[in-house]
């Protein structure tokens, strides 16, 4: 493959790759195939490079040297990196905005993207409820889910129940957990019930 073609390929893939990595770091999804990753990177890259070259030609009078061949200028490479970052955060911002509008105005439900994971929903910072965790082998714990993991490719997720205590079926306290909390995994859980918090909980942290 001629060197010009390799350079052009990298130019068109680089910003799209950066943008999609930023997007999926904020919104985890199941592992994508190599074809899907490449397609998304190329589409994002074409958008970013086309916009950057238009700005360079129309507004900057070629200052970025975006048309230089075969080797792009360092300034153009830096601009590609910045455009990838900008595109990635624009993608994140638009999805956040759509989610906010959907929750705020029911008439805009059509703006919503694909449904979020229920595990992500119950652990979002705006949910202030405490959790009653009923294990399959009998024990019941009440506490605050302070840290949790969300791995779309994993069947089970683990989390930390802080400010926790062991309770009976009537939720009467048996004893308090005076350490960091109770480490749990969803594979061992029969059900989780959510109750209004007795006091302001700490911010949840996602792994």
Essential attributes:
207 residues, alpha+beta, SH3 type barrels, 2 domains, 7-stranded mixed β-sheet, 4 helices, 7 strands, 41% helix
Task: Please provide a written account of the structure.
The protein has 207 residues and is of the alpha+beta class. It folds into 2 domains: 109 residues, no CATH class; 89 residues, SH3 type barrels, CATH 2.30.30. Strands 1, 2, 3, 4, 5, 6 and 7 form a 7-stranded mixed sheet that branches. A hairpin with a 4-residue loop joins strand 1 and strand 2. Helix 1 packs across helix 2 and helix 2 packs across helix 3. It is elongated, with a radius of gyration of 24 Å.
Number of helices: 4
Which percent range describes the beta-strand content?
15-25%
Helical content, roughly? 40-55%
Q: Tell me, rounded to a whole number, the average pLDDT.
A: 85
Radius of gyration: 24 Å
The oligomeric state of the chains shown is: single chain
Q: How many angstroms separate the termini?
A: 42 Å
- The low-confidence runs, each spanning 5 or more residues with pLDDT under 50, are none
* Whole-number total of structural domains: 2
Give a count of the beta strands, DSSP E runs of length 2 or more: 7
Class from helix and strand fractions: alpha+beta
Shape: elongated
Describe the biggest sheet?
7 strands, mixed
